[in-house]
Amino acid sequence: MTDIDTVISKLGGIEKAAKIARVSTEAIRKWKQAHAIPSKHWATIIQATGLTLKDLQPEKNNYDDNSISLKTQRPSKANAILLLEDGTVLWGMGFGAHSSKNNLALGEICFSTGMTGYQETLTDPSFAGQLITFTFPHIGNVGTNDDDNEADTIVAKGLIIKEKITEPSNWRSTSHLNSWLKKQNVTGIYGIDTRALTLLIREKGPQNALIFWPEDKNFDLEFLRKQIKRWPGLKGMDLAKEVTCPKSHSWKKDVWCWKSDKKNQNKPAYKVVAIDYGAKYNIFRNLVNVGCDLVVVPATVSTEEILSYSPDGVFLSNGPADPAATAHYTVPVLRELLKRNIPIFGICLGHQLLAHALGGKTYKLDQGHRGANQPVKDLKTGKVEITSQNHGFAVDPKSLPDTVHETHINLFDHSNEGIASKIYPAFSVQYHPEASPGPTDSHYLFKRFVELMDQHSSSHKRS
């Protein structure tokens, strides 16, 4: 294989290489880091440079090291396995709860690059049906506590880390991560080369996988492989019904401030109905913080119930799985709300569902966006926000009708990150302005929602 730097040089440098391959310069940097070019770009590069297929093909498996192999023989110290759909076998040490044939940590494998917030990540309902590979090495260092949950229970199927759980060293910790996982029957595995695993996921894309840590140390690999093959995957799957709230309820909790016990003194000024497709609690806290009198309703809510609250605005939450599958029962409701000119603000899955309601489509990303370091550009102001994200699907901007315009883009891969309607008071973003974990660059969006309600709520109520 020709050296990556040589290939990039033949393409005319990083900027021209990015233009030719139709990717961001960040993607080119990742080529250099991985010492490999994704095969989907080979034809374009061969045409542009005159190189041959042999020049671009790696001489050996880029992920062939001590921790990633196709060997099925268990090392003497290993007591747990991570098995991928492509046949990759990774041996390590289990933690949390033991698994069994009737209790498998099975789902789509992904990686998260966040350096903080493993508890918030594991309890984020958007991670339903997924195994999370944490790239940050010190998982467990702040322990766990009741205040940092983003849902009542852990939602992720399992977790994968490099080092043994770091002992907690934080004044807010009330429970060790291992105890917290065990109590909620969640399995993890450590001793995995998460850097190599991340490169594999990034190169091959999302795939089914499972973690297996049997108490009896009996590994039936043939059985495990069959379970992976049988799992249908997230494409076409609706999980919002599984993670939504069971019934409608009010939400009063404000954002937590570590410097004082003082809460927001503003009286609620806006009646807002939040549709819970798998919402993170910090979204609700931020809505309360800007003056919303909040009612949370299930994903399957009817238009009639929403209207019964006489809302000034409707919020569409984040959530897991395929938006096209969830759209079947949510889009008719959203279209009725749009016709009534009720201000709408959507996040993540809510963003994708709003796009469907406005006539757009979604697709599964080759690589999802998960972490707290995603750069997003506001196309109106030109400002760049560093954002917290967790999604494997995206809105196709080419599918949007003329009545909808794109407001934000991802600077890593130029995928869509925001839309707004030209005829309805409705907007949405793909990322998570509430953070938790992550930067707070995008908190202004909650105030933008309030401004939209100021402009439109009285008029839609009169109509």
Task: Outline the structure in words.
With 463 residues, the protein is of the alpha/beta class. It is 29% helix and 24% strand. The strands form two sheets. The protein has a ten-stranded mixed sheet with strand order 8-10-9-11-12-17-16-15-13-14, with helices on both faces. It has a seven-stranded mixed barrel with strand order 1-2-6-5-4-3-7. Helix 13 crosses helix 14 (349-357). The relative contact order is 0.11. Residues 60-70 have low confidence and may be disordered.
Helices, strands, pairings?
Layout: H1 4-10, H2 14-21, H3 25-34, H4 42-49, H5 53-56, E1 80-84, E2 89-96, E3 105-112, H6 118-122, E4 130-134, E5 158-160, H7 177-183, E6 187-190, H8 194-204, E7 208-212, H9 221-230, H10 240-243, E8 249-251, E9 270-276, H11 281-289, E10 292-298, H12 303-308, E11 313-316, H13 323-339, E12 344-347, H14 349-357, E13 361-378, E14 384-396, E15 404-410, E16 416-421, E17 426-429, H15 444-462
Parallel strand pairs: 3-4, 4-5, 5-6, 9-10, 9-11, 11-12, 12-17
Antiparallel strand pairs: 1-2, 1-7, 2-6, 3-7, 8-10, 13-14, 13-15, 15-16, 16-17
